[in-house]
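REQUEST ID: PR-0412
SUBMITTED BY: lab tech R.K.
PRIORITY: routine
TASK: structure prediction, single protein chain
INPUT:
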Amino acid sequence: MAYKITDACVSCGSCASGCPMDAITEGEGMYVIDADTCVSCGACAGACPMDAIVEE
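STATUS: complete
OUTPUT:
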């Protein structure tokens, strides 16, 4: 199950730097996770200081 970034995202980039699959990119106003690339490791959720990343 892939993760997704909620509206609580403040575009700090912590999640992108923590993703071992490079599945996270900067979108318009917030970061987004490519569900096809995400391996559901949870590294992004652990790196997010805003708790903006949840399992889909």
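NOTES: Residues 3-55 form a domain with the Alpha-Beta Plaits fold (CATH 3.30.70.20).
REVIEWED BY: pending
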